[in-house]
Amino acid sequence: MDKSILEKRIHDKAEERADKYFEMISSFFRNERELRSALVLKPNSKEKVYFRTDYNGGSGIFDSQDILSKYTNWQDIRKELVEKYEKEETDNILSKLDSINYLLEGE
User: Fold this and answer.
1) To which H or E segment does residue 91 belong?
2) How much is the pLDDT for 77?
3) How large is the C-alpha radius of gyration of the chain?
């Protein structure tokens, strides 16, 4: 397997893990109707930002990662999570390779 393919797969898997946080939060607001329609962020007095607006054009904070990033430091957090998960995925693969190597050398 080519090194760049392996690096890409590790990165993709790390991104998937980081994106699960967004999906969990987004799902929470999708399922909690009372909060979805009532809870708003008021960054300034002229604008209300809803947490979920599936029924209203999809401009709520948790309707997309881009919108969440507009009002929070989500991209910084996501980047840190991806880096952490890349290291964990790499360590996991190296550990498995060490186990295989140990078995092969034992023969």
Assistant:
1) helix 74-105
2) 93
3) 20
